[in-house]
């Protein structure tokens, strides 16, 4: 039996209202938990100052609730009361509440970090769910910082969670990072990595840095006990083609989860002053082979522009430094939009749809990699990946002839599509150089098709 349109609208409206109410309730709960935490700490302080007498004669400031909560930590001979006390007095900032930051934040909150900060300016999306385990579906469309803070408070109401719902930039990084003892870099782009590392050097903060892409991950600690900083290892930024992001290349969800947990571990080791942090060493993780190995990395470079022997990198220089220009890539998490072609060499998805409806003959070449093409594709599209385009030009000529498009119209009604409209422009440039002078790319790619033509068309 078909659902009534009015009923569907009513249910959706009621569901939206309930979700909003749930969010308000969670916020109120978080506030009450924070009040309870403050009162608990006050009571604990009163006990330790002798206002309340008891049988306990332990020389530490752990309240009964703390002893019970962290008892498994306290039972470890190498960690014990001193390690836990150190963590409770520490402050740690996690930059990024995504795939790496999610598990790091959860475990740092659970371990009892006294003040835990989180920086992120993004919102929760459905495609975050497979790896960003701190977020839930009920927070889709809301700030990641709010979602992460709520989750951390639900785990441990006794610690202080600080929300920084901002994009980290040179204009605010010094002020934010200076409030914490240890910094955890859970970002995924080159300009952020250089910026955070340089800021840590200027402020004298240890930096726990992790990365995950595809089926591999890595982890190290920078600027700790005379160890190297990020620039010591990479004085020159890698080519932009080597700086891939999960949104473009993909990642198996559990890989950043594993690296994020290890980042939390390194931060806890530094905060509690136990063990041997990964300074001067790098941990490499290969998910497919289940191999974890640790390699020695170069030490601090005396010629490093930021932490070297004669370096004079000041706070003012940091604020004025253009990290996007330095790395030739953007700080923004939004996908880049190229503009390589004149307007006459481009066509909108709506215009293409109109031509299809009119029954005009056409050839549509999809230049995405084959495994992308298998996810979703437009009807009648021919998959010729950009990397093999020049070698497969005869296939395009045959397809044009099959549609009755003559040689005198070479390239006419030949359209090129990709995911976002970047590779399709590169492909059209190649086609023009090879004589297909009328070829045009579809502006905005499949994402524009889903937005402007068919809202039910899957995006990824």
Automatic annotation (TrEMBL):
<dbReference type="GO" id="GO:0004792">
    <property type="term" value="F:thiosulfate-cyanide sulfurtransferase activity"/>
</dbReference>
<feature type="binding site">
    <location>
        <position position="232"/>
    </location>
    <ligand>
        <name>Zn(2+)</name>
    </ligand>
</feature>
<feature type="binding site">
    <location>
        <begin position="127"/>
        <end position="131"/>
    </location>
    <ligand>
        <name>ATP</name>
    </ligand>
</feature>
<dbReference type="InterPro" id="IPR001763">
    <property type="entry name" value="Rhodanese-like_dom"/>
</dbReference>
<comment type="pathway">
    <text>Cofactor biosynthesis; molybdopterin biosynthesis.</text>
</comment>
<keyword id="KW-0819">tRNA processing</keyword>
<keyword id="KW-0067">ATP-binding</keyword>
<keyword id="KW-0963">Cytoplasm</keyword>
<keyword id="KW-0501">Molybdenum cofactor biosynthesis</keyword>
<feature type="active site" description="Glycyl thioester intermediate; for adenylyltransferase activity">
    <location>
        <position position="246"/>
    </location>
</feature>
<feature type="binding site">
    <location>
        <position position="229"/>
    </location>
    <ligand>
        <name>Zn(2+)</name>
    </ligand>
</feature>
<keyword id="KW-0479">Metal-binding</keyword>
<feature type="binding site">
    <location>
        <position position="120"/>
    </location>
    <ligand>
        <name>ATP</name>
    </ligand>
</feature>
<keyword id="KW-0808">Transferase</keyword>
<dbReference type="Pfam" id="PF00581">
    <property type="entry name" value="Rhodanese"/>
</dbReference>
<dbReference type="InterPro" id="IPR028885">
    <property type="entry name" value="MOCS3/Uba4"/>
</dbReference>
<dbReference type="GO" id="GO:0002143">
    <property type="term" value="P:tRNA wobble position uridine thiolation"/>
</dbReference>
<feature type="binding site">
    <location>
        <position position="307"/>
    </location>
    <ligand>
        <name>Zn(2+)</name>
    </ligand>
</feature>
<comment type="pathway">
    <text>tRNA modification; 5-methoxycarbonylmethyl-2-thiouridine-tRNA biosynthesis.</text>
</comment>
<dbReference type="GO" id="GO:0006777">
    <property type="term" value="P:Mo-molybdopterin cofactor biosynthetic process"/>
</dbReference>
<dbReference type="GO" id="GO:0042292">
    <property type="term" value="F:URM1 activating enzyme activity"/>
</dbReference>
<keyword id="KW-0175">Coiled coil</keyword>
<keyword id="KW-0862">Zinc</keyword>
<keyword id="KW-0547">Nucleotide-binding</keyword>
<dbReference type="GO" id="GO:0061605">
    <property type="term" value="F:molybdopterin-synthase adenylyltransferase activity"/>
</dbReference>
<keyword id="KW-0511">Multifunctional enzyme</keyword>
<feature type="coiled-coil region">
    <location>
        <begin position="8"/>
        <end position="42"/>
    </location>
</feature>
<feature type="domain" description="Rhodanese">
    <location>
        <begin position="358"/>
        <end position="458"/>
    </location>
</feature>
<dbReference type="InterPro" id="IPR045886">
    <property type="entry name" value="ThiF/MoeB/HesA"/>
</dbReference>
<feature type="binding site">
    <location>
        <begin position="188"/>
        <end position="189"/>
    </location>
    <ligand>
        <name>ATP</name>
    </ligand>
</feature>
<comment type="function">
    <text>Plays a central role in 2-thiolation of mcm(5)S(2)U at tRNA wobble positions of cytosolic tRNA(Lys), tRNA(Glu) and tRNA(Gln). Also essential during biosynthesis of the molybdenum cofactor. Acts by mediating the C-terminal thiocarboxylation of sulfur carriers URM1 and MOCS2A. Its N-terminus first activates URM1 and MOCS2A as acyl-adenylates (-COAMP), then the persulfide sulfur on the catalytic cysteine is transferred to URM1 and MOCS2A to form thiocarboxylation (-COSH) of their C-terminus.</text>
</comment>
<dbReference type="InterPro" id="IPR036873">
    <property type="entry name" value="Rhodanese-like_dom_sf"/>
</dbReference>
<dbReference type="GO" id="GO:0046872">
    <property type="term" value="F:metal ion binding"/>
</dbReference>
<dbReference type="InterPro" id="IPR035985">
    <property type="entry name" value="Ubiquitin-activating_enz"/>
</dbReference>
<dbReference type="Pfam" id="PF00899">
    <property type="entry name" value="ThiF"/>
</dbReference>
<dbReference type="InterPro" id="IPR000594">
    <property type="entry name" value="ThiF_NAD_FAD-bd"/>
</dbReference>
<feature type="binding site">
    <location>
        <position position="144"/>
    </location>
    <ligand>
        <name>ATP</name>
    </ligand>
</feature>
<dbReference type="GO" id="GO:0005524">
    <property type="term" value="F:ATP binding"/>
</dbReference>
<feature type="active site" description="Cysteine persulfide intermediate; for sulfurtransferase activity">
    <location>
        <position position="418"/>
    </location>
</feature>
<feature type="binding site">
    <location>
        <position position="99"/>
    </location>
    <ligand>
        <name>ATP</name>
    </ligand>
</feature>
<dbReference type="GO" id="GO:0005829">
    <property type="term" value="C:cytosol"/>
</dbReference>
<dbReference type="GO" id="GO:0061604">
    <property type="term" value="F:molybdopterin-synthase sulfurtransferase activity"/>
</dbReference>
